[in-house]
């Protein structure tokens, strides 16, 4: 007895071919860099010290020095600076240098700086008898790329972006960013508010309203006061 060869109907053949063609979807690879990426990589972030120098006084911080420190702290706040270092010379200056350094730290803390952000340290004046107290912090400056070669802006015969594409936008962003240090990486997250979280969960478990109480200012009522 002979067996006849297997015959595939057109519908069955179509299903077999579809099953062979089907499979896991291809994974998209990383996006290729474009012309704008080349300019973003050319922005340089440079750390530059912002310092003031205070002369030592046996009586401590003077009024002029206090005003200079107030201006310094305003720049530090605007730049969202990090640790402030108050470096006082050690040795030949006597107690006047340390007195001004300690007063400078106390002044900055009194103006709103966190105590852990203002550090009083000593340094070797290398024999100088007039070495100052140096108060400073590191601030970041963004150096934008120099744009040029605008003559080829309308040359599109090869259907390629001109060489200066994106330079002006990158330079403007680098000039306008409030804190260039943010371009180096993300800031650390603040710690969680455990007290608030505990209070909300306690109310949630007992079926209470978890939102804060609404006061009169949050009512949305239009003021009737005479302006």
Explain what this protein looks like in three dimensions:
- This protein is an alpha+beta fold.
- Among the domains are: 45-141, OmpA-like domain (60s Ribosomal Protein L30, Chain: A), CATH 3.30.1330; 144-153 and 160-184, no CATH class.
- It contains 6 helices and 4 strands, in the order H-H-E-H-E-H-E-E-H-H.
- It has helices at residues 10-21, 35-40, 63-78, 95-110, 167-176, 194-205, and strands at residues 44-54, 84-89, 118-123, 133-143.
- A 4-stranded mixed sheet has the order 1-4-2-3.
Give the helix/strand layout:
Blueprint: H1 10-21, H2 35-40, E1 44-54, H3 63-78, E2 84-89, H4 95-110, E3 118-123, E4 133-143, H5 167-176, H6 194-205
Parallel strand pairs: 2-3
Antiparallel strand pairs: 1-4, 2-4
**Straight-line distance between termini:** 109 Å
Number of helices: 6
Q: How do the strands of the widest beta sheet line up side by side?
A: 1-4-2-3
Structure class: alpha+beta
- What percentage of amino acids are in beta strands? 5-15%
Supply the CATH superfamily name of the domain at 45-141. Answer: OmpA-like domain
Q: What is the subunit organization of this protein?
A: single chain
Q: Can you give the mean pLDDT?
A: 79
Instruction: Report the biggest beta sheet as strand number plus sense, adding barrel if it closes.
Output: 4 strands, mixed
Annotated CATH architecture of the domain at 45-141: 2-Layer Sandwich
């Amino acid at each position: 007895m002979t067996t006849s060869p297997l015959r595939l109907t057109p519908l069955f053949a179509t299903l077999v071919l579809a099953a062979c063609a089907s499979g896991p979807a291809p994974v998209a690879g990383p996006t290729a860099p474009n012309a704008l990426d080349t300019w973003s990589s050319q922005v340089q972030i440079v750390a530059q010290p912002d310092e003031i120098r205070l002369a030592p006084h046996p009586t401590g911080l003077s009024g002029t020095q206090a005003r200079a420190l107030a201006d310094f702290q305003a720049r530090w706040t605007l730049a969202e600076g990090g640790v402030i270092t108050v470096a006082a010379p050690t040795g030949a200056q006597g107690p006047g240098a340390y007195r001004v350094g300690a007063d400078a730290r106390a002044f900055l803390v009194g103006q709103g700086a966190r105590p852990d952000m203002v550090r009083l340290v000593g340094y070797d004046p290398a024999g100088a008898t007039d070495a100052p107290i140096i108060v400073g912090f590191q601030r970041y400056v963004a150096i934008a790329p120099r744009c040029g070669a605008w003559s080829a802006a309308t040359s599109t015969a090869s259907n390629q972006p001109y060489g200066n594409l994106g330079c002006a936008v990158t330079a403007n962003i680098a000039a306008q960013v409030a804190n260039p240090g943010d371009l180096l990486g993300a800031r650390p997250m603040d710690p969680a508010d455990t007290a608030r979280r505990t209070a909300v969960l306690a109310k949630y478990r007992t079926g209470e309203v978890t939102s804060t109480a609404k006061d009169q200012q949050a009512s949305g009522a239009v003021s009737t006061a005479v302006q």
